[in-house]
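Narrative summary of target 7.
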Amino acid sequence: MFNKSSKGFSVTEVVVAIVIIGILGVAAVPSIQLVGRHEVKKFAKEMCLDITTQRLRAMTSSGANYSVDLVSSVPPGAYYTYTLSPAHISVSGVRQVNKGNSNGIRIIMQTSDSALGITTTSCVQFDKRGFMMNDTGAYIEALKISINYKETNTQIDFDGVTGNYKIK
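Modeled conformation, tokenized:
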């Protein structure tokens, strides 16, 4: 009845192939989530290094104003990148990180001090002693930066006086 010379796959072979593909797919999902967490941690470390560098430049410069500014996007208040100015690593004096939100990261900066409490800010500046100030020039006791990427959240806590930080 059946011609043994017919070519193709049996139902058993197709089912085995589908099961193997399913197992590989299930195994790949956790590793994709780890890539997201790794991306956020890497971005947080870069941001800490940039902020620390700006602080040190302010302490050793001859009067230049060093700052870290969040760049607004659409919708307003949804920050996904920051600039360092002045920065001697580019011709324009500004280094933009995470340009074009290529990785979908969102940044929120909050400052705290005893007089104003906790406020959201888009700019942090440094004086000659390395102390942090907000955009109005008021000194900041602490800076909290939240970095969000999909379901992954990372927080950076900066001491506004010593410059010490902790990534959580």
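The longest strand covers residues 106-113.
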